[in-house]
Amino acid sequence: MKTVVFVRRFLADYARNPVNLLLLVVVPVVFVVVAAGSLVDAARLFGSVDAAAVATATAGWAAGFLAGIAMYFQTSAARDADRGLVIAGLPARRLVAARLLTGLGLAMLASAAALVALWLRAGVDDPVRAIAGTLMFALIYLGIGATVGSLMRNPVNGTVLILFIWILDVFFGPTMGSSGDKTVTRALPTHFVTLWMADLPLRHGGRLGDLGVAAVWTAGAITVAFAVVAATVRVTRRHRLAARPGSVRDQLAAASRMGWRDWRRNPVLWALLAAVPAVFILLAQAITPHRPTSIVVAETGARAARIFDVFDLHAGTMAPIAVASLATLAGLFVVLDTGPGDRRLALVGLRPGVALAARLVVVGLATALATAVSLAVAATVFDPRQWGWYAAANALIAVTYALLGVLLAPIFGRVAGVFIAFLIPFIDVGIGQSPMLRGEPAGWAQYLPGYGAYRVLIDGGLTDGFDETRSLLIALAWIAALAVAAAVLVRRTIRPSTG
Amino acid sequence: MHATTAVVSRTGPQATTMPVLTVRGVEKVYRRGVWPARRSHQVLRGVDLTLARGEVVGLVGENGSGKSTLMKVVVGALAADAGTVSRSGRVGYCPQEPVLYARLSCDEHFELYGHAYGMTTTAMRAARRDIYTALGFESYARTRADQLSGGTQAKLNLGLALLADPDLLLLDEPYAGFDWDTYLKFWDLVADRRAAGRTILIISHFVVDEQRFDRILQLLDGKAVPR
After folding, report:
1. Domains of chain B, with CATH numbers?
2. d(CA A348, nearest CA chain B) in Å
């Protein structure tokens, strides 16, 4: 019952700004009535022929957007006050439940307004699908809004991120022409809801069906939101109890946070992250002609040469080169830039192991970004047969080379380190492993760090089933060995001398 | 050649007479190049040094005499080839060249060092405020280190050593780059810390205000001798 009291208070808090309520009704109506026509035109431009499906989806888009933004402000603006409630004794799970139920109320209002507008504008052929679909849109964005609200305090960043997700969702959704049929766009939050709501015959849902996957997305979004909001509300209490000043956790959090700030203020690295994958991958695609090439792949336990069109796979082979190069440079420069400062910090009490862990966190984030950007660019021109394994192989290459970069820093220093950081990924991933040059890697290339991960990449990119367990183990062994070597060497350079 | 032993106690100085820092027979040889062109240069040849609680001691010497090497050995930044170093209490170290994170602000540096020292946020903020006021650079609190002037970088470099009010302050050319006003403020700070029982070792190429020191030591032929 206590939860209901909080929901009522939270709703009252929201409704006491009448503009909030007005927008919840006016925006969906304007969106569905006015913008739907333009969106149908846009969809036609992208190749869609189903105007009714676009019109139906507009109700969901409007409800989703409003629910997401409303929940964002519910979560972010009230976080400090909510923490006060938790500190005062309210269980975090009850507070989060109350916040999400409040959001549900707002989502239902926005959905109702959008559906009424849809009914007035174009009529509703299938009321069950329209109502349930719109509500699922709203709930998924409710989860997105709550998650972003918990993690991003700055309202500009938060709302821009939600808007960005929503625009991707709308314009690459299944009602918007041919892009809706691409494998990668199936990962968008409301892809399956749209398929079911508009009754499109693409049937991407497999055994679960489009409705089943849509329901999983809806439940998943709410569950993740619940977990994230609860975690951020509880953080203060846990920190107060457990993170003693100067403890391992306290130092790790501070060093990682500052390391990340230091790194993200380096605009050159950001430019590299954006430019290198784009140039590598898109240029490769632009200059590659159609011609056959023979590549050895593993299928159903046996290796055999198969013929591929290089035009179809060149971009996919450039992504790991971009990933490896960026990861090596990130590992190298993070350790080089922070080495003297870390050694001074270690003299006054920062644990060397903590300093190393914080640097690896920053390198990991940089590498994850580089990989995500490379995969996103590659996705525009390359369609791997198994996306999961292809992405995982790129991640393995990224981790391998990030650790190699970390290792190069204390051994070679800045100038020689940069030369080697360019050389090794180029020789290994760019030449030794490349299927563009040889059907399978030469003997010498099998001893290089990228061999195992690259075989997994070929398997994921060009075949329908996974047959590279041994290669995967080789890749993991390389990562383990490099991690141990990097840990020992970097820790030695940071640690104060006792002898 | 026997190994150096550094004995570090965190319990703090117990009495005025108890040494805060004891250095015995510290030796250091720099070796450069590879065989057969390998050359050795012995910088420290058995340094002995004892600092008591509340002392302000100057360490002078010619360029290349080994002052910074000795300080690095004392603080633990460099391993000695022989000898022992015993310290008690918390140590603050101000290196000769500012060692800073280029893209972090002054506030962020103090925050990070507060965590390293194991200070509470409240204590760190109070100490930071006092240091900003004492050295006069609070207006640069949110400026990145790579956008500070050389003098302000030197203030931040010194401030990081002072943050936790350490029992032993090891300052390597701390006022290089200070204007006259800041130089005087620095000595006010030193006087306050000495009055609170802190021990301070200051390296300088030359000593102008001898009266500000309790003792002055000179590094001569690799050994510390009274001047």
Report:
1. 5-90+166-226 (3.40.50.300), 102-160 (no CATH)
2. 6
